[in-house]
Specification:
The protein has four helices and no strands. It is mostly helical. 62% of the residues lie in helices and 0% in strands. The chain folds into two domains: 40 residues, no CATH class; 60 residues, no CATH class.
Length: 105
């Protein structure tokens, strides 16, 4: 079990300044020291996850994006969506390549 490193004196002083009794502040500090930190994500864990998800999204977009854009364009032609959803879907600047309808194959 990996524990959090806690500056107990600093935490107790801050809690006392905010109206906790000495006993309450010590109890909270002890509870913090007993937390199991082994399941917490680190900044590195989050960065690794961001890279993985970005790669998966890029793969999905390269595979399904053009098809999805074509199907959406066909649905627009037949009036399958209300005009309010079209405005939201097409708010990317013209020529930016970021809108749903701007995908090219």
């Amino acid at each position: 079990m990996q524990s959090l490193v806690v500056d107990t004196n600093s935490v107790i002083k801050k809690l006392e300044q905010r109206g906790f009794s000495r006993a309450q502040a010590e109890g909270i500090t002890e509870a913090l020291k007993e937390l199991d930190a082994s399941s917490l994500a680190t900044k590195t864990d989050l960065k690794d996850l961001e890279i993985i998800l970005t790669c998966r999204l890029a793969c999905w977009i390269s595979t399904w994006g053009p098809l999805t854009a074509r199907l959406f364009a066909v649905d627009l032609r037949i009036g399958a969506y209300p005009s309010s959803s079209i405005a939201v879907a097409s708010t990317a600047p013209s020529g930016s390549g970021q809108g749903l309808l701007s995908c090219s194959s």
